[in-house]
Amino acid sequence: MLICALLLSFSNSLSAQSSTDSIEETLVYASLIPISLEQSANAITVINYSQIKNRSVSSVSQLLRDVPGLAVSKSGIQGSQTQIRVRGSEANHMLVLIDGIEANNPSQNDGVNWGVLSSANIERIEIIRGPQSSMFGSDAIAGVINIITNKAEQPRSLEIYSENGSFNTKNNGVSFGIKNNNFNARLGLSHLKTDGENISRIGREKDGYENKNITFNAGLEAIESLQASLSLRRANGMNEYDSDIDFDGLIDDQNNATKFENTIVGLKVNYLSLDKIWKQQLAISQSSSHNKDFQDSLPATATHSTKDQIRFVSTKFWNKSSQRISFLAEHEEEKFTQRGPINDYGIYGIFDPNQKRSRKTKSIAVEFRTDIFNKTTLAVSTRRDDNSQFKDANTYKFEIMRNFYRHTRVRSTYGTAIKNPTFTERFGFYTNFIGNPFLQPEKSTSLELGIDSKFYDENLSLSATLFHAELEDEINGSALDPITFGYTAINKLGLSKRKGLELNISNNFRTNLNIDASYTFTDSQELDAMGAYQNEVRRPRHIASFSASWQQSDFLSLNANIQYNGSQEDIIYPNNIKLSSYTIVNISANLNISNKLDAYLRLENLFDESYEEVFGYQPLGFGAHFGIRFRP
Q1: Are 414 and 391 spatial neighbours (Cβ–Cβ below 8 Å)?
Q2: How many domains does the chain divide into?
Q3: Which tens digit of pLDDT belongs to each residue from 419-430?
């Protein structure tokens, strides 16, 4: 509350200096239908195309490191298993959408392997923090990340890019687009390949990575009130990795690899009545994933999963669209298949990974939103999920947002959320882990309070958010099984607690200089075996980032990025170990040689910082990359 009072006072003293009330409207997926960024009480960050282009990085996870509230854990180098935790939550507590299509992978513990999610052909990324289960169901217990791919914007377009760099990295791509009065289509192709470096602390065997990506979008406006769109994104490739085969906590240098193929496809049909008071949307989508593991070039475990979803949303507007009510009906079916050799571990038992599983969820939801005199926004949403494997679940959320002094708003949300146990947690079989089919869903209650202010003709933006969440029946996926002496998953007793503060500053006082800085404090606690609270692993208490973009002229722009991760704990069974803090500096330069040709240089980990985000996994050192973009 002190932060709110100070910012309100500061805003009041400066509001007279502002000469414009205009706010650029950005639609975000923070509701059952996209709404203006200014209408949501959630803490939201939007990464736009200009920011993506200036950074010139190859993966989405590199961009998300600058977002308040997000902690990234990469198991080594480019292409390695990468997890993102939001506000101290688990890595599978964030729903990930690509063009509105769910991308969470049932065969990957309901998470997303951010290590292989390419930034190629991406236009914008929306990060909506806080519980969203009342609108999106189980996977959205801690928030939603919506990735929007590029669409055709010109009658005809063609772009080719090529990049070469350290570790024998080659990144090439091409895109084609067409657009007329009622039709648009765009196809983007990319191919990244790198030799990488050794992930393990010992040995010299390099762990390489390859990713081939296809992105296709098409849109048709049959009549003024009826539009249809098709989205497809497919990535396939290979990443090499090392693991701890003797369970001593250290990563062993091995000849292991995973071949992956991830595909999402979705069709949307939108209808808006001629009087613009009824809007209907029907969305049909499927996401699928194939993963094959190889050890010393021999096939090991393989998994395959699909998620089929039909989603219908109907919205009624009235009072000049200042009030709306939306209804949702949704059906989802998930299928999981695992194949692999049967292993006899003696006293630990016989492990047979071969299985097929499925589950279905039928859901309904309703959301009401109202704007009162353009000053106050109120919203309430509730959802009921009928799952074939678990008890029916009810979730809800309340939002309130109040505008003050034209350029300051105070916002708050309170909501409940759930996360169903994954196929792996319930039925997984690998090495010395066996699943627990009796697991119950995790349940969360969250509260947040935030304030956003703009000063100096909106050239300076400040945002602060306090959050607090309690998680009941948290799933511990590494509990010792006293019968097999292996590991299993259990629901913990008591509550896990997460609280913290997010700060963000954005400054563009000069037309050619933009500065963004963020800081996150996270206190994430769970109960240990003795009933005492302890820090959860891979959640740094302090994370900060700083970015500065300078447009020297139409010819040259420079970008500097600094990322700080505070110390954090990791686990070497059965004990925890502290990982040291680190600071990474990245520099990029973009040269606009002509209207048709750009060149860029990217320097990563400029000072060759040595650090670990996951114990035993070595990251990349200093790397330099040079590329060109050509538009014939």
Answers
A1: no
A2: 1
A3: 999 999 999 876
